[in-house]
Design goal:
Blueprint (H helix, E strand, L loop, with lengths): L1 H39 L21 H9 L10 E10 L8 E10 L4 E11 L2 E10 L2 E8 L3 E7 L1 H14 L12 E7 L2 E8 L2 E9 L5 E12 L2 E17 L2 E13 L2 E16 L1
Antiparallel strand pairs: 1-2, 1-13, 2-3, 3-4, 4-5, 5-6, 7-8, 8-9, 9-10, 10-11, 11-12, 12-13
């Protein structure tokens, strides 16, 4: 009897492992195709783009000009696409433990968008796969446990606004995008400026913060947060640090994201860029 039970459990584990492996293969195959389609949306370069000059910064608020000069965009050609890798930690609720993982993210700037793919380890045998996407003005977030069991599948106007705001905030990793026609700048004071981005019929706005050296130190804006199927506009804050020259541009390589809620601050995400590559 014991041998039969053990044999049955072995069969169950083998089948479960096979299903999980097949689900992982399907997820990763879909992820590869999705990135290929996304990058194919970058139009062929018709002519050599011109390097950015001081004249291109005229009219920008003083702290933005100081930031772009510090970031070494002068003399650089506009970034057309980006691939970066991150080490990440996150939690979905304040009473949950932090999960660790890695992420890869692709950006394009001509038709603004990104695809962010993350893999988190809950324990040695259980993993979470996620994808956040902003393409053609629309956003979508997917999270699956063990590449098989969906726990989040979100889309709609609130997600569109949230992913646009995320794109705007993350232009700090490819700062030549600050000169995009879709982004309008307004001075706040000598250490802050508001950026408003409109694309695909959706508008998002937030304030960038800078130090005296010209380093970008943070971003804040109103972003939709989902809770039990309902969305509310909440204060979304990013702090940025550890500025380094990667790929020819000086960028913050660490970021912490916090929701400023009526119930208190909820720090839910941190990341560190480990690799970045630009296509100009």
């Amino acid at each position: 009897m014991v041998k039969l039970v053990i044999g049955f459990l072995v069969i169950v584990l083998v089948v479960a492992g096979g299903v999980s492996l097949a689900a992982r293969f399907a997820w990763e195959s879909t992820a590869v195709r999705e990135v290929q389609i996304f990058l194919a949306g970058i139009s062929p370069l018709q002519s050599a783009s011109k390097p950015i000059e001081s004249a291109d910064l005229v009219g920008l608020p003083t702290p933005v000009r100081r930031w772009l000069q510090h970031a070494q965009v002068l003399g650089s050609k506009p970034v057309r696409s980006v691939r970066l890798q991150q080490g990440v930690t996150l939690r979905l609720a304040a009473d949950q433990k932090w999960l660790q993982g890695t992420a890869v993210q692709y950006f394009r700037t001509e038709a603004p968008g990104f695809v962010w793919q993350v893999r988190l380890r809950m324990n040695p045998l259980l993993h979470i796969a996620g994808r956040d996407r902003y393409v053609d003005g629309r956003g979508q977030m997917l999270i699956d446990v063990q590449w098989l069991l969906p726990v989040v599948d979100a889309s709609g106007p609130e997600v569109d606004q949230g992913t646009l705001l995320r794109y705007l905030a993350e232009t700090v990793w490819f700062p030549t995008a600050a000169l995009s026609d879709s982004i309008q700048w307004q001075a706040v004071d000598d250490a802050a400026a508001r950026a408003t981005m409109t694309y695909g019929g959706v508008t998002a706005s937030g304030i960038f913060h800078f130090d005296d050296a010209g380093q970008v130190t943070g971003f804040e804006g109103q972003r939709y947060k989902e809770n039990a199927g309902a969305y509310t506009l909440e204060h979304w804050v990013i702090t940025m640090a550890d500025h380094r020259n990667l790929g020819g541009l000086v960028i913050p390589t660490r970021a912490d994201i916090t929701w400023r809620l009526d119930s208190g601050d909820f720090h839910w995400f941190s990341c560190e860029i480990t690799e970045i590559a630009y296509r100009h």
